[in-house]
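Readers outside the structure-tokenisation community will struggle with the description of the input data as it stands. Showing the layout once, in full, would remove most of the difficulty. For illustration, here is how one protein appears when written out as sequence plus structure tokens:
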Amino acid sequence: MKNNFVIPVLLLFLIAVATVFFIIRQSSPSVMVSRAEYGPIRDSVTGNVKVHAAATFDLIAQANARVEWVALLPLGQSLVVEQNQTLIQLVQDDLDLRMDRLMLDREQFNERKELGSPTEILLSVKEKELLSMRELANIEKVSSHTFDLIDNEVERLRTQVKLEKLANTHFLENFELSMANLDAEIKKRSVNSPISGEFSSCFVAPGNQVFAGNVVGKVHTKERIIEVSLNEEEFEGVEVGLGAGVRFFSQGDKVFDANVSALSASVETSSGLRKLYLSLVEHVDSIPIGSSGRAEIIKFKKDSTLLIPTKALVGDFVVIEKDGVAQFRKVVTGARNLLTIEVIEGLNHGDKVVVETPHILNDGDRINSTVVGFQK
């Protein structure tokens, strides 16, 4: 009879223990953990990226006129252009009329010159007459007064011929000067590219009135400057020549190899940021100006060291899982990057660290863990 009583009690006790264990088990949060492992690491810093053109030039109108045509309409897609290529043409009908007038004057001058000078013809006749009169004067067949009259007339005609030639020379000089001035005005009606590059912005359209000094567009070089902003304290160890990886948000997940080409000499006092500049290993034309992204500057590499995921670190602590219990462990870290952190002290190989929201746990919490790997 006694045995019959003990057995049910024992079964109830076991059931109660199992129920409590199940309840506790179910109430324990599930977490992801990764084992501390040896592997290579790159000590690096990351910063925000901004893409600039190596050089940008304003296109400035040099005359007051209406726009006749443009190579790129406002808000249009960038256009590849060559140096001195006309990008915006202003109306020049008035200059064309002045050009026609000048060319007509030159044509009429050439026609008059081809016909010859009446004064030169008369001078030739009078010079012959003067020779004859001189011979007659020598034998006293004509008076000296008559000879002097003809001699004076010849001198007058010679002076007149010289004046005509001088007038012709002045006409040609004035014509060349007028042509040069007109050519200069015509050139001012064309807005040309100062470089070979990309016509990226146009601020006018056909029919718009522009004035001398107005900025009507922008041209930039094809070369890009990759600007990276870092916190001032992250600059330690960064120098020209270091390797880097750049990801542009407009280019998806592709990472471009680059090198540090220059360091800013100053720090922005308002933000505490300092800038450096990268040059891409391979030239890429498809990166728009103004693009943003992230860059990783690689300071140095270690071939084998104890690593944990970067997201496992909470300040100077990590949360390890031991026998289903969360334990906070202070660690000393070394090299780090976006993915992994080197642990110098505080962990052993194989220790399981919480990698998902470790900051919400308390020391001593019971947890259910699932081991996952991590990218090194």
Q: What stands out?
A: Residues 221 and 319 are 52 Å apart (CA to CA). The longest helix spans residues 144-188.
